[in-house]
Write a structure and sequence with these properties.
Layout (H helix, E strand, L loop, with lengths): L6 H49 L9 H6 L3 H5 L13 H40 L4 H20 L1 H21 L1 H21 L1 H21 L1 H21 L1 H21 L1 H21 L1 H21 L1 H18 L2 H48 L4 E2 L6 E2 L4 E3 L2 H4 L6 H10 L10 E3 H8 L19 H4 L3 H7 L10
Antiparallel strand pairs: 1-2, 3-4
Helix pairs in contact: 1-4, 5-6, 6-7, 7-8, 8-9, 9-10, 10-11, 11-12, 12-13
């Protein structure tokens, strides 16, 4: 994580960088001097060395022989002294250069050394003054100085101003640069102001008014600050409201009271409030089905209880209903009502018919028919007529009752004839007779298909009895076939 640098820290770093640069510059200056010195020394040494190599040629110096031959070293050769001397330098100018450089270097070094010594001495003295108990003379001196300073400070206006400015500047600088000092100052200031605030009433009042004023001004002018303040206030209020139960209750009571008062005093507000609440309730009633149901139930219950318990209310209700009916029973309304009733009737009928026709009746019909069909097919053509001997279904025959056909006032001839029609050979008790035969006998005529009417089936001859089904088919006069629809 990168910590953001404060302005003071930035200033400090810049200052340090500047100091470093200055030091480097100084160093480079000194370096330049040193380089010059070294150059001079080198030149000198080279010349000295080359004096040697002038004597014995197998020398390993850096200067080329050409350089040596070019120069005139007669002066060098002339000197017998082997020691280092400035005479070997040929040019007077060069020698002077070297001399000057050396001098400057020496002087500079001396000066620097002197300065350093002096500074260290001063420091030492200061330290001794600070740590050791001050002498009497020193104390006197200080007192004197203080006196003088006070006098001048009190009398001389210009001096005073200068002094105050200076001190202010100094303190400001210190405050700006020194972190520890700044913190200390801040703490001290806070403490002192708090003390003053607590003890001095006038100061307190002044401070309060000043603060309020400044806050109001800031609130009015600075939009951002205003917003912040608002959110802060709201937050703190909600926090307090949520956490502090006592405050919560108090707030509630206060608000209620306030609202109540306002409601009673301010007519406009009252109306607004009423309208708003009505709207709210209506909105809720329309959108919330549960609420709607509850309200409806409640209203119904209330009305019912009132109607039951309060006689006058009931009478009123009844009166109201009668009046309403009377007042509203105009011909137009009558006609409308008739139409409505008619419509309702038709609708009911239609609905009933629909439901019966389509569902129940249809199904019932189907089931019934099926049942009938099943009943019918349960019995085959098992009933034989005793007159014609045909095998018939149940609906084609009726039970045979002797008294129906042979009455007492019949002639004996007639009786015999009718008895000959009825086949008495059958031994079965409850015998059947087909409807057509019975009709004919009732008319005292012989039925056309009666067995007596020469329709007796003779026995099959023995030759034909042996034939199988296929052979029977082949010789048959008629081919009976069935057609199923
Ligand atoms: Zn040499
Ligand atoms: Zn018959």
């Amino acid at each position: 994580m990168v910590r953001k640098k404060s302005v003071a820290a930035k200033v400090k770093t810049q200052k340090k960088a500047y100091q470093r640069r200055v030091a480097q510059l100084n160093k480079s200056c000194s370096w330049r001097v040193l380089v010059l010195v070294i150059q001079a020394a080198k030149k000198f040494l080279r010349l000295r060395k080359c004096k040697i190599c002038y004597k014995n040629s197998d020398c390993h110096c850096t200067i080329s022989k050409e350089f040596l031959t070019k120069r005139n070293y007669k002066i060098l050769s002339n000197t017998t002294n082997n020691n280092i001397s400035f005479d070997i330098i040929r040019d007077k100018q060069e020698f002077d250069d070297v001399k000057n450089i050396l001098r400057t270097v020496v002087s500079k070094v001396c000066r620097l050394d002197y300065q350093r010594k002096k500074q260290s001495e001063i420091r030492k003295r200061k330290r001794s003054v600070d740590y050791c108990s001050p002498d009497e003379s020193v104390l006197r001196k200080r007192l004197k100085q203080n006196n003088w300073f006070n006098k001048k400070y009190n009398h001389d206006l210009l001096f005073r101003q200068n002094q105050t400015q200076q001190t202010a500047c100094k303190s400001r600088k210190k405050y700006r640069d020194n972190n520890v000092f700044r913190d200390k100052e801040k703490k001290r200031n806070r403490k002192s102001t708090i003390e003053k605030y607590n003890n001095n009433e006038e100061f307190r009042e002044n401070e309060k008014t000043r603060n309020r004023k400044s806050a109001i001004e800031k609130y009015n002018n600075n939009e951002e600050f205003r917003e912040k303040e608002k959110t802060r206030n709201r937050k703190s209020a909600t926090e307090k409201y949520n956490n502090n139960k006592n405050f919560h209750e108090k707030e509630k009571i206060r608000k209620k009271k306030e609202m109540f008062n306002r409601y009673h005093i301010n007519k406009n507000f009252r109306q607004q409030q009423k309208l708003r609440s009505n709207q709210n309730i209506l909105f809720k009633y329309r959108n919330d089905p549960v609420y709607q149901k509850n309200i409806k139930e409640y209203a119904k219950r209330q009305a019912f209880s009132k109607y039951v318990s309060d006689n006058s209310k009931r009478l009123k209700k009844i009166q109201y209903a009668i009046n309403f009916y009377r007042n509203n029973y105009t011909p137009n309304i009558q006609k409308q009502r008739q139409l409505y009733n008619q419509r309702r009737r038709i609708m009911n009928k239609y609905l009933i018919a629909q439901s019966h026709n389509c569902v129940l009746k249809h199904r019932n019909l189907y089931i019934k028919n099926l049942k009938i069909f099943r009943d019918v097919i349960q019995e085959g053509p098992d009933y034989t007529c005793r007159v014609c001997g045909l095998a018939l279904f149940r609906n084609q025959v009726i039970p045979y009752i002797k008294e129906k056909y042979i009455t007492k006032n019949m002639s004996v001839e007639m009786k015999e004839r009718i008895e000959s029609y009825l086949n008495n050979s059958s031994l079965i008790e409850d015998t059947w007779i087909c409807i057509s035969c019975s009709d004919k006998i009732k008319k005292k005529a012989m039925p056309s298909r009666a067995i007596v009417n020469k329709l007796e089936v003779s026995d099959v001859p023995s030759e034909l009895k042996k034939l199988n089904d296929l052979e029977k088919h082949l010789i048959a006069l008629r081919l009976p076939f069935m057609k199923i629809v």
